[in-house]
Amino acid sequence: MSTDTTTKDSTEYTRALLTTAEPRRRRTDRIMAGLIWSAFALAMIPLVSLLWTVLFSGAGRMSVDFLQYSMRGIFGGDPSGGIYHAIMGTLIITGCATLISVPIGILVAIYLVEYGRGPLARAVTFFVDVMTGIPSIVAGLFAVSLFTIFFGPGARFGLIGAVALSVLMIPVVVRSCEEMLKLVPNELREASYALGVPKWLTIVRIVLRTSVAGLTTSVLLAVARVIGETAPLLVAVGVTDSINFDPSEGRMMTLPVFIYRQYSQGQAPCREDQVNCVADIALQNAWGAALTLIAIVMILNIAGRLVNRWFAPKTR
């Protein structure tokens, strides 16, 4: 009886030692938790402030007319213009850049993960890292210089902007897709090889299918990263107030360039007898376009989350 009592007391004493924290450790834990929450709140302040400012300043300009009309024939403080031409230009140019960047980026990532050995793989990795830090204006100048060789000076159209954005997108796609491909367990590859499946077919049927959720998310994040670029598009595509759906001919407007142009115009001169004149309409247009751009990026991120959830490997 005494032995059982001693064992029980020893067990309770051990449990108390394991579950009861010392006062010093408890204070340290609370201090660190407070520092972490303070850092989180400090990081959220500029984000919440930015979203609130854009929402507060741009919500008043949002309307159906603002989203479905262009700025063609709009001058001064006329409030009847819209951003439809800028929205379509942004979607077309970004879509063309995605068509250029995604195949190249995924193929390079496959090479680095599945085949890359020796000095060539190290050189590719080095140049991808270098391209990651290229200023966006340099990408725009490169695209303009490249197309000037074939079309002469003064050429400005959507494909030039798409090439400029693809220069910025490719290293992001390569790096993110490379990490996604590395997450595929080697056991899946080895099991496929053991069944006599060729390596290229293993990559297509096993590796890519397993990592399709991560690859899709990586591509959407790369698109969200370049869709707000202003400098390369201002250099490569130019500006226009008209709607242009052809990326191979004529200048196109994009939302970032539209925001910059409207903001730089400042106040419009309005006479006292002008009824249909808003002095700060350019600033309102800029804020409305900024809110639209943020909404597009948010939609892309939500789409990436949904794709990741739909195509993620099922654990049950």
Write the topology of this structure:
Blueprint: H1 2-19, H2 23-58, H3 64-68, H4 84-115, H5 118-132, H6 136-151, H7 158-182, H8 186-194, H9 199-210, H10 212-226, H11 231-236, H12 255-265, H13 281-311
Structural descriptors:
mainly alpha; MetI-like fold; phosphate transport; 316 residues; Phosphate_PstA; 13 helices
Overview of the molecule:
InterPro entries: MetI-like (IPR000515), MetI-like_sf (IPR035906), Phosphate_PstA (IPR005672), Phosphate_transprt_permease (IPR051408). This is Phosphate transport system permease protein PstA. Residues 87-304 form the ABC transmembrane type-1 domain. The chain crosses the membrane at residues 34-55, 83-112, 124-151, 157-174, 206-227, 286-307. Belongs to the binding-protein-dependent transport system permease family. CysTW subfamily. The chain contains 13 helices and no strands. It has helices spanning 2-19, 23-58, 64-68, 84-115, 118-132, 136-151, 158-182, 186-194, 199-210, 212-226, 231-236, 255-265, 281-311. It is mainly α and 316 residues long. The model has no long low-confidence stretch (mean pLDDT 86). It starts with a helix and ends in a 5-residue tail after the last helix. 73% of the residues lie in helices and 0% in strands. It folds into 2 domains: 17-59; 64-311, MetI-like (MetI-like fold, Orthogonal Bundle).
